[in-house]
UniProtKB/TrEMBL annotation:
Transmembrane segments: none annotated. It comes from the Eukaryota. Residues 1-12 have a biased composition (Polar residues). It holds the Pfam family EF_EFCAB10_C. SUPFAM superfamilies: Dimerization-anchoring domain of cAMP-dependent PK regulatory subunit (SSF47391), EF-hand (SSF47473). GO terms for molecular function: calcium ion binding. PROSITE patterns: EF_HAND_2. This is EF-hand domain-containing protein. Residues 88-123 form the EF-hand domain. Residues 1-29 are annotated as: Disordered.
Amino acid sequence: MATSRVSVTSTAPMPAPVTASKDKEASLGASQKEAADAYLRKHNIPAIMEQIMTGLIHSRPEDPKKFIVKKLEDARNAKARNQSMLVFSRENLVALHRIFDVTGKGHITLDQYKAAMQDLGATNYNASPNGHEKDRIYLDDFVDNAFASLLRPPIPVSEPK
């Protein structure tokens, strides 16, 4: 009785064993990501980019790259003057209030106010503006609070441990 031998070969590569060097690479990658995140937070890059992108979406300029470059130059110049960068004009804020004032009564609710502040990218706004007790935030109070929150530095994010 003859036995035949069957040889099975696989064309799929064998997975490489996990080694200490791969663990080291993953650890190094994680620490680099943490360092990059800390760097971005330290220089307030996420807030700046959020303001620029919000302005870009709101303005919809013909040349978005030129718009972004100008806003970055404005940010640099504002920093040199020790000022905050503003993306929105008074007219922009009035228009935003009107968008939320769907009834045309001249005021918005506190929830609408908070949603508008989030739309602006304002992270450090007055959560209890004039009129909040009656759930009526009027245009001038909205605009004043929006400008104040956009000029105020954002609340610092604590560094990861």
